Every structure is written in C-alpha cells, then in structure tokens.
Amino acid sequence: MITKEFKYNPNVSYNPGIKYSEKDHQLKTNLVNQTIFVNQKENFKTAFPDLFQNYQNPSIHTNEPWNAWIHSSFDWWQCQLNFAVWCASTGCGVSYNDHIQNTSNLTKSFYMFHLYYCIARILKELKSPLPTDSSFCYYKNPYDKAAYQKLCDEFNISPNTDWRQKLESSCQGLGSFEQYYKPNGEYRQRNKSKGPFFSTHDTIKHEKDISMAWTTFILDNGNGFTQSGVERINESIKIYVWALLGAQSQTKTEILKVGTGFDAQKQFLANVQDVINSPIDLPTQISNYENVLKYARSKVDYAYGLGLYMSPSDMVLQIGSIVGYNNKIIIATENQTLGLNDDLNNKNFDHVDFKPKEPVKPQEPIKPEKPKEPKIDPIKKN
C-alpha cells in the first residue's frame, strides 16, 4: 500500500510563509556529496557542485544592500536559493521526514537526488548566477523576472512572497546593527530615509550561524504531493534512471566495477549537469528514459509513489542476456506498493549484450587425403 505522503493530493496546499525546523549540517553534506544507490544494497559516491556556499550574508556597511533587502529582497542570492529549496521540497510535497529520511535506501537516494536536481534546475530556470560565477552578487544577483513569475504560477504562490530567512530576526533577518556614528538633529532627520548607515564603520552582521537557514523552507512532514510536485518528481525519476543506465551504456561498463566503473560514475555526473544546463524537453526525457530501461539488470518494478514513473529495482548494467521479463514504462497505481513490486513485467525480454563477440577463427585448409594403396590378397593367384 502506498501511503498518503507518496500520493497526489488535490486538496493539499503548503503555505510558503511557514518556516519549518532547521535541519542538521549533515543534510548539506549529503546533498552535495551524494550516495547514489543503484539498488537496495549497492551504491557509489558522487560530488555535485555546492549550491549552498556563501549562503550566510556578509556584514554590510552601506545603505544599498540594506535597501535591497527591505524593498527588493529577491535580488539577494539567499532569497533566490530559499525559493528554489521551497519549490523542490515543500512546493512539491516532498518532506524531510517522509522522503529525504526514508528508511529504504533506493527511495531515500532518489528523493535526495530529486531535492538537489530540482533546486539546481530551478536556479537555472531563474538564470541566477551561482556563487562560483563571475557575475554573482550576494545582494544584487540578477535573475529572470519572467521566469520567476512563471515558476510562481506553476507552484500557485504569490511573487510577492517573503523569502527571507527568519532564524535571526534582528534587522529583518540581516543580523545585529552596530552603529559607529550617531548623528543628531536636522542631519539625522534629513538622511534617515536613505537607510540606517551614517558611516562606513556602521555594521549589520549575523551574530549566529545561519548557514543552514535554507533548510527551514523544507517541509518537515508531508500530506501528499502537489500537482507541480508530481510533474517535477516524474522529471527527476526520468533523469535519475537515464543518467544511471545511460552512463553505463555510454561507457559500456558497470558503474560499480572497480577501475572502469569510475568512468561510468564520471559520466553519470556529466549527464546530470548536462540536463540541468539544457532547456526542458519532455519528449526527449521520456524517450531517453524508455530507451535505457533495456540496459537494467532487473525489470521495471520499483515505485517511488502513486502516479509516478517506476524504475528498475537494480540499475546496474546487465552483461549478457536475461529472459523472464519485459521492461516497459509503468506508472505506479493503487495496485502497487511503495518500493519493490516483483509481480510486474513478467514477460520474456532479452537484454542488450555488451560482451564483445569472440573473433571468428579462420579455418585451416583441408589437406588432401593420400590415395589408399590396393590391398593384395596373398592367397589369390594371378
């Protein structure tokens, strides 16, 4: 049985104004340095670009970043990342306790992948420069306003939503204010509308570590997937399966194999980054997903939720041929359970065989037989 947390709920609505519990620093580590399970037991490690570095705002000393924080806070990188995190998790109905911390290795691995992939994908759609980009600016980070509006429409939220973190509430989330110069009288009245700074020695800075404040935008416990969630999760499933099986078919090696498997692992990372940086192309995603299913060691029998694409429960490259099942695209229904469904796709199917064929040995020329000498009968007389 698939529980409500793993089903589409047409009545569910998650308020973007609600902040959830701060998660442990280990979540960031696990998102960037992911353990990718290819089945319930076997995995490999891969390192994605760190999207969460430079999250904590630096100290500010002038009115320009302050005014941006007050009047156009989405210009700040921190708010752009908070928005992407909310969309990938809460906006989809993906929760920390139900999905990210799931007890099934393959289910947990997939939803961890989904969280990272969807965050990166949304930042790409926003055209937000990342901290490693030369055009990055922590308080004046350019973004595509039309794309932001489109994403807000997709997730059914207002573009005027406040995406500022609230772990440290002083100065509306910027930190504590230390004023070096305190002017009085007419000068103060005339200039206070420009902002709180009257000297470059004036400082607003964080007194506490808020580097994990983005996790307060991640739903703690879910009540079902949103429509946007079903669409985004299905995209993540297709990419997860294609990147894994495609990497192995491209390099013609098992991804767990010591030595040559490292090439497949590197290709997996390249596949994911290529998709993140490419325009959305649903027909191609479906085609790629369908085409690589034949390379899996098992049939399509693993469910990540109701109404979602299913995947093989063992995504190691199959060497040789197996008969006994037929890999076809399957959408999980009420008849399936979360995780392994062994009764699906039980028809004959031959896997692609990547074993190199033995070269045909040239036949040796046939040697002519020696003529047989006639037998002489010693008794017979001439």
How large is the radius of gyration? 30 Å
Task: Point out poorly predicted stretches.
Answer: 187-191, 321-325, 348-362
How far is it from the N-terminal to the C-terminal residue, by CA? 100 Å
Oligomer: single chain
Number of helices: 10
Number of strands: 7
Average pLDDT taken over every residue: 83
Helix proportion of residues, in percent? Answer: 25-40%
The percent range for strand residues is 5-15%
Quick one: overall form? globular
Main sheet properties: 3 strands, antiparallel
Physical arrangement of strands within the biggest beta sheet: 6-5-7
From N to C, what is the helix and strand string? HEEHHHHHEHEHHHEEE
Helix/strand-derived category reads mainly alpha
Region (Disordered): 350-382
